[in-house]
Amino acid sequence: MTLSASLILLAYLLGSISSAIIVSRIMGLPDPRTMGSGNPGATNVLRTGSKKAAAITLIGDALKGLIPVLLAKTLVDDANIIALVAAAAFIGHLYPVFFGFKGGKGVATALGVFLAVSFPVGLMLAASWALIAYITKISSISALIAACLSPIYMSIVVGESAYTAMAVFLSVMLVYRHKNNIKDLMSGKEGKITDKE
User: Fold this and answer.
1) What is the rounded CA–CA span in Å between residue 60 and residue 55?
2) Three-state SS for 178?
């Protein structure tokens, strides 16, 4: 197996590790898949009432995107391969081989990817998410707007076509994974970040 293929496979496998499920089990919390949207992610872990567990989950999910991309940038000098590694880590979170291919929505993992590809772009997206979340208190709106901004930020700040294409792919997938949230937003049923169950 070539180095490039190994990096892509490693990124997918690392992305397949569910921080939300593992953290919740270790800390004796309800399965995050039984909360809110039913997806294993930091927002649903927060709905269990544990800010600490949600923070650990968020960091863990972000690291799944950050680590493989930084490793790829260290070992190869090819934006196309690095972009594929980034996409593989993200896909691993969405469709994890270790959890029946039923994963989270990928917001934190995407943030980790963007921070590794371009730290300024990652910071801009984090700031955009935080600002919108502060105003609306709705995670899905924040994620959707940040997702749509990511290719724009990447194109302006970095200007590498492979990375911009990767950002477009992640953006499209993030919107797709939020399709039920979009329906709830349109019907006024979407829950807020602070909601508990």
Assistant:
1) 9
2) coil
Parse the chain into domains and list their residue ranges: 3-187
CA end-to-end span of the chain, whole Å?
A: 47
Model confidence pLDDT, tens digit, residues 69-103? 999 999 999 999 999 999 999 999 999 998 888 88
Tell me the residue ranges of DSSP E strands in the chain.
none
Per-residue pLDDT tens over the stretch 123-177: 999 999 999 989 988 878 888 999 999 999 999 999 999 999 999 999 999 999 8
pTM, two decimal places: 0.88
Q: In whole angstroms, give the CA distance from residue 74 to residue 109.
A: 19
Please tell me the chain's helix, strand, coil percentages from 3-state DSSP, rounded to the nearest 5: 75, 0, 25
- In Å, how far are 34, 79, 137, 143 from 105, measured between CA atoms? 15, 25, 18, 10
CB 133 within 8 A of CB 193: yes
